[in-house]
Amino acid sequence: MSCGICNKNLPSEAGELDYTRCAQCNRCYHFDCCKLKFSSWKSMGATRRSEWICLRCRKTNPPADGNISDEDEEEETGQDVGKMLKEMAKKWDGFEKKVSKKLDDFEANLNFYGEKVEQSCTTLKNLEQKLIAMEKRIDKTETENRELKTRLRTLEIQIQENTQKDFMNMMEISGIQNKEADPKVVTNIILEKAGYQPNEIKTKVEKVTKKVGEDKKEKTVITVKFESQESTLGSPVYQNPTRHVNAGLSHTDGS
């Protein structure tokens, strides 16, 4: 024999006060299952206990007078409370599952973002190392650049010195009245006036037309280039090493 509510077996050798029986459906119930207090059941007496009707039968076939005893109301209220508690327990289980799922999702997100943070830290460390390497390369490049500038300046000085040496071996003759005059003859005359024998000095003579003087008019000029520095006239002048000689004068003018 089993309980009409929980379907669990009832004690086979139970006394009359261990469970209750419905007078209509003849089903048996645990006191806890039908929410009937044992003290109320005991106070009913044998006659009322034999006439006791379960809540299911009372709802299906209510009493003719429509009155429900205090015990019945208490039983019905107890069953309603039990039903409400079961519903609350069911809702709580659902809520607990949702909270548990949210916590699991939150933990998974923490793990995910934790891995992302670790990856970001690794990336930052790699970038920092690359930045340090780039700074070293920049320092090295700046050092090489300074060295190149120094070498370039040295080359510029050497080129300037070589250019000055070339200028020291040059002479310009201007003030030529006769444009048809032979530049070689004019050069020999100038050298003789300077006290040199033309045959003693090897020169390269060229007659050109250029703008000279403040008026910037075109005039005929003879350029004389000496083949060796030892053959130049006089001592070198570095500020303006090119010697300029006016053919109308009887001496050289180093300007």
From TrEMBL:
Domain of life from the UniProt record: Eukaryota
Keywords, alphabetical: Coiled coil, Metal-binding, Zinc, Zinc-finger
Annotated region (Disordered), positions in chain: 229-255
GO molecular function: zinc ion binding
Domain PHD-type: 1-60
UniProt keyword S-adenosyl-L-methionine present: no
The protein, known as: Uncharacterized protein LOC113471504
Taxon lineage: Eukaryota, Metazoa, Ecdysozoa, Arthropoda, Hexapoda
